[in-house]
Protein: Iron-sulfur cluster assembly protein CyaY
Organism: Candidatus Accumulibacter vicinus
Amino acid sequence: MNDREFNTLADAALKRIEGALERSGADLDYALVSDGMLEIECSDGSKIIVNRHDAAQEIWVAARTGGFHYRWDGSCWQDTRHDEELMAALSRIVSQQAGETVSLVG
C-alpha cells in the first residue's frame, strides 16, 4: 500500500474511533490533537494515545497497559502480536483504564 492509501485508511479509523467514543457516552475527553493523533483522557487524568505511524504504516496505541501496533490486513486493523482487531482492543483498553465499560464496536 502506498502512503496515500495508508493515510486515508488510518485517518478514517481515527475518525471512526472518535465517533464511537462520542456514541459510547463514557466519561472521557478526546480530541484529534494533531494530524494523525487522537488523545483520549479518562476522568482520572490518565491518557490513551492513538496515532498514525507513517513509517511503519501502522496505528499505534499507547496506554497504561502497554503499547500496541495495528496493521491493515485488507479488511481491518489487526494487532501485529495478538489476534485482536483495533476497535475490539480499544474497547477493552479504554474500559480498563477508564474503570467503566466502554464499547466502541458496532
Notes: Strands lie at 28-34, 37-42, 47-53, 58-63, 66-72, 77-79. The two ends are 26 Å apart (CA to CA). The first helix runs from residue 3 to 24.
